[in-house]
Amino acid sequence: MKSSRKRKSEAQFYRPAREALLELFKPKDCYLEITADRRLGERIKKVLTDYDLFANQVERFIPDITGYVVRSEHEKYVIVAEVKAGPTSLRDIFQTKQYAEIFGAKYAFLLSPEPMPEEILRVVKMKSTILSHSAGYERVFVGRLDVNKNSIVQWHTDPPHLM
Fold this sequence. Notes:
By secondary structure, this protein is of the alpha/beta class. The chain is 36% helix and 25% strand. Residues 1-6 have low confidence and may be disordered.
């Protein structure tokens, strides 16, 4: 029952987070959908590998928001995002990393309307490798979401370098 309550409280932030990420990737060709309901749309499935689809369908691994950004006609980079209602934790960072690794995401975001607690900030700064994932790309980007403006108003990590 606890996770059900948690999901409802997070759900109100999915749309503002999606809009904030679309704005971040503007003017690039970016597609994002809210996948917290554990269903991927056909448009997303087309850019995922067989392994990614297996992880989604059989193991039920799926982030709150999933999508891609188009670099060229033959190159699309996967985007995953986790949205939290409360302050981010190390557990949240590892959950986001898990999705980034499974989906081979170039861009992985962890967004919350709450600031990151000081003790987590210090750990992340002292051991920045916590944010890295083995997908061979970037790292987890942690930001604070302004739900009234549908924007990311603060990066708790280095901001992403978009291609």
